[in-house]
Fold this protein.
Amino acid sequence: MNPLFASLMDKAALLTRNGQLAQATEAIQHALRGQATPDTASSAGSNSPKVDSAVIDVEARVIDAEFRTHAPQAAADTEQWLRGTFAHQGRTIDYMLFVPVSTEGQREVPRPLIVMLHGCTQNAADFAAGTRMNEHARACGAMVLYPEQAQRANAQKCWNWFKSQHQQRGRGEPALLTALVQQIAQQQHADHRRVYVAGLSAGGAMADVLGHCYPDVYAAVGVHSGLPHGAAHDVSSALSAMRTGTAPVPARTTGTRPPTIVFHGDADTTVHVNNGLAILAGARPGEVKEGQSPSGRRFTRTLYPASQARGDSEHWRLHGMGHAWSGGSAQGSYTQPECADASREMLRFFLSHQLDDDRRGEQSV
């Protein structure tokens, strides 16, 4: 390992242990670019991961997926940013977990758990930096779990939302991800009634898959620039749905789909904006509100009242925005910081919902 890279990664590990996540991310970025920070003196290079020609997303800057924090579990009064590996049914998956400090009042109450699924070519650290979800979750004491797709499972590190074996309960990635979520919830004493899942692009599509397959596990779903469950069955049909939009997918005949909040830019040339509307197919729109971010970027927010088949939902149409996470930070990829803050709005939406006895049932994968 070259000396600059080693020095920067040691610095990042120290910053992480001290809870200085933004500075740690900056150090990792410098290490990957081979650029010295103000307190280092030499430069180095880094290798890019292999990129498949069948892209189910757009390319993005990648923060090192191999950075691992080997520090032991921190004390209860110390913020934690941990990396681990989980195995289930012959599959393994890496993840990062953010655990904020508990206030005295929070220590007696199980805390919410938010699951964040990155887009293609991204990883957990990149997605955390870009969405700033940890910062929002810190204020309310919520934990945030970032599963990380393995390149051996998809060359672009996309979640395989477009393959039928990964669209069913008890199989493939939905089973793996939900088993991980339940394991973390048990280990960290999370509130099983307040587990939420969100994602961007391929991650958003997989979030909708999880909500469809496990409505008894996820209290609410957030889909940003994604596609609905069942929109495709292979690469060809996935590319077609991304280009032209998705026909409404038949509604479930039994059960209730989780409350869902959807964000989609109407200038998205990677995933057609109609896919966002298709996620809420069958829901009856109610109140429509026009608004703008502090920077003046316009959006249209449509509220969907709850029905027998679906929990109450929201659709945010982000005017003039492309394929990116609305709001967030330029420290991560796929972000448009000047737009409405999707992380803040998702967290607000999530925390207004929890599983009731009718939906919770027996949790199994």
In short: The domain at 69-360 is CATH 3.40.50.1820 (Rossmann fold). The longest helix spans residues 172-187. The chain has one domain: 69-360.
